[in-house]
Amino acid sequence: MADIEDENSRAAKMRAFRKFTFRGVDLEQLLDMSSEQFVELVHARARRRFHRGMTRKPMGLIKKLRKAKKSAPEGEKPAVVKTHLRNMIIVPEMVGSVVGVYNGKTFNQVEVKAEMIGHYLGEFSITYKPVKHGRPGIGATHSSRFVPLK
Question: Measured on CA atoms in the order 138, 142, 144, 148, is the torsion positive or negative?
Fold first, then answer.
């Protein structure tokens, strides 16, 4: 009996989680590399955007995220930073932050994970309400035009 328990505990220790890599580079190296080196890893559209220069708005968002992360207690999620910048490309520095992304009506909370690097913030905040197909309503077919007077 003890032999089975020992075997189970050994199997649990051996199972390790898959380490995240972005285009062959792990997260620790991504955080350490310069912005020029990171730009060379992303797709062409993002590369073009970074080469044309970072404007004030994205830099302001990154500064607010840094401040929220710094002020958060250890082991806690940082405060939500609201933004309208749906076209902001997620960089490694943003991993672990919580961003409120505006969808045209409300701010959807998005917790930035390592797998999101290189994507746009807007991809994680849907702008429409998905259709729930049910019974057809008035005006759906020609037969619904006829409404008796009495």
Answer: positive
- Alpha carbons 47 and 60: distance in angstroms, whole number: 20
Q: Are 40 and 30 in contact (CB under 8 A)?
A: no
Which two tokens mark 13? 């220790």
**Neighbouring-strand partners of residue 120:** 89
The one-letter amino acid code at 16 reads A
pLDDT above 70: percentage of residues in the chain: 84
Q: Are 129 and 105 in contact (CB under 8 A)?
A: no
The pTM (predicted TM-score) of the whole model is: 0.75
What are the E-state strand segments in 5-77? 21-22, 25-26
Residue 44 has pLDDT above 90, yes or no: yes
pLDDT of residue 135: 74
